[in-house]
Amino acid sequence: MVWAGWPAPGLWAAGCGLLCRVRRGLRGLLMTRSQRLLFRIGYSLYTRTWLGYLFYRQQLRRARNRYPKGHSKTQPRLFNGVKVLPIPVLSDNYSYLIIDTQAGLAVAVDPSDPRAVQVRRTQGALGVALGGRLLPLDHSGGNRDLSRRHRDCRVYGSPQDGIPYLTHPLCHQDVVSVGRLQIRALATPGHTQGHLVYLLDGEPYKGPSCLFSGDLLFLSGCGRTFEGTAETMLSSLDTVLGLGDDTLLWPGHEYAEENLGFAGVVEPENLARERKMQWVQRQRMERRSTCPSTLGEERSYNPFLRTHCLALQEALGPGPGPTADEGCSRAQLLEELRRLKDTHKSK
Ligand SMILES: [Zn+2]
């Protein structure tokens, strides 16, 4: 029975849904704002003060004690004389050495732990150019020690992110050449304002291109949006979505199992995710690294790269409207995914 003057049941439900969404949106907005403020304070302390440096040293010591051989077992990949060597550092970070074995030159990407990078700087790598990166010391804390030890070290990165010992600031589309290594910087703001990802061009060595994605993109996940909006992050994700399916993804963290668990909550029917999860669980049972995946694989299960999918829009948003403007925008969906991911507990 419906009383006169009361909205019809359908309208009533729609009204409640709208109210819930507004409340959820407001809560999300407040959380996001307070998270950003906290991040900015922590970021300044961490990157610009001795307190931050001491904290980083303590993190380093703890991780070395807890994982004397690194948090994961990694395998190098060799492509016609170009070797990519993932180095597990801290509790879940990856640094990378990219080595042109013929020229005896190496580039270190995200050298968080100078000792870990130094130990692996063998295999004929004589010179070092450093791809120091973005976010504070969990990605670039090794710059100081490596720069002091190797006077010819060059430290590349964004001038916007307070990278320690930066010698060569990079902009969007700048290319760093080291032997046969051609590495293009792509501006991908969102996690931080100056966030860069690095694309190693496969053409000079006739192998697959490699994307070193830092805190932008992980296996089945993406970084938090600390300095930017959902639109900014979406545009950064679209930048890497434009790369080829065969591009290998080398992320900045080992988050695969948790991320795929979350992807299963928002897209339970996704078989590609299910298959990848089974493989990842086998890898992690023996503490093996899960990188690299490919961008083609990521397109098939990474929800943060699938905001164009109708199934995801219908599951999380109001669904597509009669026109593009009336439906749930991809940026709104990305924001909702981020909110759900931040509150998701995998276990
Ligand atoms: Zn990180």
From TrEMBL:
UniProt superkingdom: Eukaryota
One Gene Ontology term of the molecular function aspect: hydroxyacylglutathione hydrolase activity
Sequence ranges assigned to domain Metallo-beta-lactamase in this UniProt record: 92-253
Keywords from the named record: Cell membrane, Hydrolase, Membrane, Metal-binding, Mitochondrion, Zinc
Topological category with respect to the lipid bilayer: Peripheral membrane protein
Required cofactor names: Zn(2+)
Cellular-component GO terms for this entry: mitochondrion; plasma membrane; presynaptic cytosol
Subcellular location: Cell membrane; Mitochondrion
InterPro entries: Clx_II_MBL, HAGH_C, Hydroxyacylglutathione_Hdrlase, Metallo-B-lactamas, RibonucZ/Hydroxyglut_hydro
Pfam hit, one: Lactamase_B
Gene Ontology process terms (BP): methylglyoxal catabolic process to D-lactate via S-lactoyl-glutathione; negative regulation of neurotransmitter secretion; neuromuscular process controlling posture; regulation of dopamine metabolic process; regulation of synaptic transmission, dopaminergic
Reactions mediated catalytically: a thioester + H2O = a thiol + a carboxylate + H(+)
Role description: Probable thioesterase that may play a role in cellular detoxification processes; it likely acts on a yet-unknown alpha-hydroxythioester substrate. In vitro, it is able to catalyze the hydrolysis of S-D-lactoyl-glutathione to form glutathione and D-lactic acid at very low rate, though this reaction is not physiologically relevant in vivo.
Family per record: Belongs to the metallo-beta-lactamase superfamily. Glyoxalase II family.
Subunit structure, as described in the record: Isoform 2 interacts with the sarcomeric proteins, MRLC2, MYOM1 and ENO3.
HAMAP family in alphabetical order: Glyoxalase_2 (MF_01374)
This protein's name: Probable thioesterase PNKD
Originating species: Marmota marmota marmota (Alpine marmot)
The encoding gene: PNKD
